[in-house]
Each structure stands twice: as C-alpha cells, then as structure tokens.
Amino acid sequence: MTTATSYGAAHAALLKEGKKIQIGSHDGLRSRKSVGLSRRHVNLFSVSVPRPNPLIRAVSSPVKPETETKRSKVEIIKEHSNFIRYPLNEELLTDAPNINESSTQLIKFHGSYQQYDRDERGARSYSFMLRTKNPCGKVPNKLYLTMDDLADQFGIGTLRLTTRQTFQLHGVVKKNLKTVMSSIIHSMGSTLGACGDLNRNVLAPAAPFARKDYQFAQQTADDIAALLTPQSGFYYDMWVDGEKIMSAEPPEVVKARNDNSHGTNFPDSPEPIYGTQFLPRKFKIAVTVPTDNSVDLLTNDVGVVVVTDADGEPQGFNLYVGGGMGRTHRVETTFPRLAESLGYVPKEDILYAVKAIVVTQRENGRRDDRKYSRMKYLISSWGIEKFRSVVEEYYGKKFEPSRELPEWEFKSYLGWHEQGDGGLFCGLHVDSGRVGGKMKTTLREIIEKYNLDVRLTPNQNIILCGIRKAWKRPITTALAQAGLLEPKYVDPLNLTAMACPALPMCPLAITEAERGMPGILKRIRAVFEKVGLKYNESVVIRATGCPNGCARPYMAELGFVGDGPNSYQLWLGGTPNQTSLARTFMNKVKIHDLEKVLEPLFYNWKRKRQSKESFGDFTNRVGFETLQEWVEKWDGIVATRSTYNLRLFTDKDTYEKMDELAKFQNKTAHQLAMEVISNYAAAQQNGKGE
Fold first, then answer.
1. Which GO terms describe its cellular component (predicted)?
2. In this structure, are 303 and 425 located in the same domain?
3. In the chain, how many domains are there?
4. Whole-angstrom Cα distance, residue 108 to residue 110?
5. Is residue 51 part of a domain?
6. Residue of 20, 193, 113, 86 whose CA lies nearest to 548
7. Which of 202, 344, 410, 688 is least surrounded by Cβ atoms within 10 Å, i.e. has the fewest?
C-alpha cells in the first residue's frame, strides 16, 4: 500500500459564466521544514466573485513534487473551493431543491449531507441532514430547546442522537438551510466540521461527575476540538454573513495551534493546520479516563486516556492511534481496525502531540483512493514504529512508554446518579437515539421547566444534568409517563443495542437498520426464551445498513451489517467492554432466516459456556468452524427426558399441559412452572395463601 504525499502542479482557475474564483497552485501538503524538503513559493492569481466579504487568498504549502500523483475527485474539489466556499455559495442561491456534486462534498464540512427519501417513487424529494458538533456531548439548555424547535419547524419532527454525542436533524429543505444554521449558531451551537475531511466531534465520557479526572478529560476534549477547528471563516461567511460568533479560546490552544517550531503549519495560510486540502478523510478522536470505555476508545483515529497519580491528580495521557470502522464489502484490503498504543505524554504536551499525529496523517495519508484514506491504513502500511518515529519529528520529542491501566468497562450511565456536587443526573435510554412523539414533548417540558443542561452519550442516549434532589420524584413520574423508563424496566437487549438511521434517508444504506432493529431485538428475545436464557442475560447487538460502520457493529458481540435487500452480514466476537474486534461469521443472511442461525448459537452458549462467559468470548473460544457446524446441523431443540425435568413434572401429561399454557406467553414449560411455584411460595410467606 503506497502513500500519497505530494500533489502535482497548479490547476487552472475555474470559469463559470465569466466569473472566476481565486485559486492557488497546489504542489503538495508538506509544510515548511517537513522531512528535509524546502519551501517553494507559488504564484497566486486573483479575481473576484460577488459576495459580501472579500475572498481569502488560497495559500498552498509547498514542496517540490518528486512525481505527479493521482488524486481523487474530492481532492480537486477542495483545492478549487477557496477554502470550502465555491461553488456552494452560488448553489445555495439557486431555486433548485438540490445542489451540484461539488457542493455536496463541500457542504459536509459545514455539517450537512444532501439526501432524498428513498421510500418515495418518482422525482427525488431532496432535503438536508444537519449534524451538530458537541464536544463531550455537552448541550446547553438554550441549544437543546432550539434544536427541539427546529425539528418541528423545519425538520421531520424528531431529533436523532448519534453515536458521536451529537444531534442529527433530518428533512431540512434547501431554502431553510441558512435559517436553521444561523439559529443553531446563535444558540451556542455549531455544525462546523461535524462531517467532512477534518476532525469530527471529540468524544468524552458524558457523565457530569464533579471529579478531577472526568473534568480534566472533558476539558481536554474541548481543547482538542478548539485546536482542530477550521480558522478560515468559511462557515460563518456562509451562514451568518461573516459574523464571528465564537467564545474566547484558552491561550494554550492558540499557542499550540500557532506553534510551528517543528514544521507542522502552513505559515501564510488562513488554515494553519489544514491548508487548502484539509485531511485525506474524516478524523475521529476520543478522550476518557481509565476503566471508562463509554466512548469506544479503540475505534477512533486517536484515543486519549487521562493518567493520574495516587491522589487522583492528572499527570499526562496514554495515546492510542489507528482505529476505524469503515470498510467495503468484497474488498478485503479494507477492514475495521482497533487503535494501538503510541506512548505517553505529559499533560502540558497533549495538544502538541495530537497536532503532530494529525499532521502526520495530513502529509502521508492517501489522497488517490478514498477507500484507503483513513489513518488506520497508513499505520497498517507503515507499522507503528515508523508511524511513531514520524510523529515524533513533528512533536519534537520522544514518546514515553505507555502507563499501565486497569481493565476497561462499558459504562452507560443510565438511571439516577450523584454528580458529586450535591446535584443528580439521570441517564435515559433512547431506542436507536430517535427522540420523537410523547418522549420529545416530555423531555422538552422537563428541560425547559427545570432549566437543565443535557449531555448526549456515544450510545445514543441522553443525560439530564444538574437536577436537585427535590426534583427527582416529579421528573421520574413525568419521564415514565412518556415511556422513558428507569433501566431496570427496559429489556437488557435494548440497553446496549445501537443502529444507524439507514433507510429511507441515507444514500449509502443497502438495507434497514434503525427501522429494523425493534423487530430484530424482539425476535432475539424470543430465541433467548426458547433456549432457556434468562431475561437479565444480554448480548451487545448493533446494526448498520451498510459496511461503513456508523453504529460500530464491528465491536458488537452480534453485529448486523447490511449486504443486500433484507440481508445482513453477521459479525461475531466483540466483547461487552468494547476491546475486541468482531469477525465476519456469515454473509447474505436473509432477515427471515435469523432464527435458523441464532437459535443454535444461543442454545449452545447457554449449555456450553464457562462461568460468566459472555457470548462474544464464547464465540471466540469455541471457534467459528464449530459455530458453523452447529448452524449447518441444527434441527431445532430436541425434547429429551431432561426436558420434562422430573423435579417439577411427575408425568409427561402434566408437562404437556403446562407446555401448552406456556406457549401463549412465549415461555417454556419449565419457566412457567417455576414462575407459578415462586408466586405460590411468596404468597404463603406473606400469609396470603389459603
């Protein structure tokens, strides 16, 4: 696998009905002092495009190209865009309901995707999905209420909580885009960089604990997000006519961004870190504390873990690099990958270290074929030692050995918890992150009445923060009436399940995910009961409508990845704490055949597992060859003498009558009998028996 590190000679200026756009020549992405290559000045030619603010000169970063390198179409679109402006700025002014191909690529950087309803036949009905950017999943009260209003006024009446702690707002038509975008911006929100070839939303544990380590992790996530936010103003030019609405940045963020002591920056560019070309593909970062893997740490391009001393004081960070979920069906050279250890840095160096990693990917990630442009492919090609060595050149120091950490745990933060500052927070499960109907109305009423801030979790759930103890009872009652139940009243299978939106709006979806998940979970619950698994037992189930992996199915114990109409590729072997990568078990499993595959797997897990062995660990220990043999030879559950369980049934006739009654409740005869006996014993103990 080769890497694309330089990019050819200058392109001609775009011509559009006599209007010209100012473009700089682009000779590569290596910055000054980079790997011994010298800076070569380029000539810029400037002409004007009608717009309220003057154009920024496009400055590329220079180097002598050794060879002409092929580039993808998106790379050329970015180069000609005058820092993500043209031709989107013109397309938004037309009466057409959609925008052209170049603009569909550029609007991603602004936090939006063009979509159409694939359920509808005939002419396409275009709309736009907007995604917010909320580091740590933090949502101020004002922003939540604004998003709720926008969903009703300009969307489809629902809000979608994503797997990266953000909102998605579907169904916004082109003529309303500026109104919606400016409303979000003026309500302390942003969609800048929620999509596109740059750093996406930075994850961190959503729990609002008043603990040094959690607060330090969240502040670090905020700082990294600020460091890697685009600086050239294209977003504000487009949506609020150039008005800058930004909070003051910490001085250490500004210092780290401007530092060019190791050749990381484009000195004369409005985008000192990104340049004209930004990154080869999307870039994902997560920050957390030891043991807390609520962020799916190892699925990110960069994972950052706070390391504290014995007194709980943050000292530095372990860094992990090279994770990523996306792949392409039937292209074996694409694959999901877990991040691996890069090293340790002291806390004062974290922004410089992260910047060095980003620049290494910017300079060396492939730009010829977007299937291979994520940083995971660069690291897989180079190996971690070479990657570390190059990052250290941009960092200016050697990484220290990673510090030892305890085992990871998945933490959902559902239910009621003490914040540690006298207040409470309440984590609420939301199936597939879809907030609508009575649930949406009630959440708004509570958040507005009690003036609550909100946190979104990486598991598509929502946390209400800063609740006084006196409010707990009325809030619990109101939530329950809207179907937002405490976790003990929610099916355990649902609590850890995730699904992407897929059909009908996602253009990449091959089959259902969100709309299909409720039926899949009900059928798996029925299989559990049939094979005798207890209600409180569960497996991590995730589904996506295509192989891009937005709901991270490759980390699930049981992953469904759409590979055809009403058909899924099944992945097995992830673990509950999200530290193992699943593997492909079967292809082209039709939705109506799920029981034929899952029943033998769960039946044997029930009977052959070791003590407290999860389903994922069980499938890895037994091996896929054995699992495949069980599926192929499965003839259903065979009734044997032990099925009658003579401790409960003295004869076959009694068993068969009980079995007949049990079927009406989707239970086994044994389960129903135990329930009857337990209820009878409880009644006797309470003095209610006759």
1. chloroplast nucleoid; sulfite reductase complex (NADPH)
2. no
3. 4
4. 5
5. no
6. 113
7. 688
Structure tokens at 158: 């629902």
Continuous segment of H or E residues that includes residue 183: helix 177-185
The candidate with the shortest Cα–Cα distance to 431, out of 371, 508, 367, 498, is 498
Mean pLDDT of the residues in the chain: 88
Residue 288 structure tokens = 């957390």
Residues 558 and 651 in one domain: no
158 and 277 part of one domain: yes
284 is catalytic: yes
DSSP β-bridge partners for residue 303:
286, 320
**Could you report the per-residue pLDDT of 377-392, keeping only the tens digit for each?**
999 999 999 999 999 9
- Burial state string for 515-548 with b = 16 or more CB within 10 A and e = fewer than 16: bbbeebbeebbebbbbbebeeeebbbbbbbbbbb
* CATH number, residue 485: 3.90.480.10
Residue in 164, 327, 500, 525 annotated catalytic: 500
Catalytic-labelled residue, pool 282, 374, 542, 667: 282
At residue 477's C-alpha, the angle toward residues 475 and 480, to 5°, is 105
Separation of CA 331 from chain center: 23
Q: What is the pTM of this model?
A: 0.85
Phi and psi of 602, rounded to 5°? Answer: -70, -35
Return the closest-CA partner of residue 414 out of 455, 462, 476. 462
pLDDT on residue 686: 57
Rounded to an integer, the average pLDDT of 600-624 is 98
Q: Pick the catalytic residue: 71, 131, 366, 440? A: 131
Catalytic residue among 39, 160, 284, 455: 284
Catalytic residue status for 200: yes
**569 strand-pairing partners:** 561
Q: Is 178 annotated as catalytic? A: no
Q: How many C-beta neighbours within 10 Å does residue 404 have?
A: 8
Q: Which of 78, 108, 133, 200 is catalytic?
A: 200
Residues 323 and 264 in one domain: yes
461 residue type, one letter: N
Distance of CA 291 to the CA centre of its chain: 20
Domain co-membership, 486 together with 534: no
Catalytic residue list contains 282: yes
Give the pair of three-digit tokens for residue 533.
């698994």
Active site residue 131: yes
Residue where a domain stops, chosen among 395, 424, 458: 395
Catalytic residue among 136, 426, 465, 506: 506
CATH of the domain at 541: 3.30.413.10
Residue 371, domain extent: 73-204+208-395
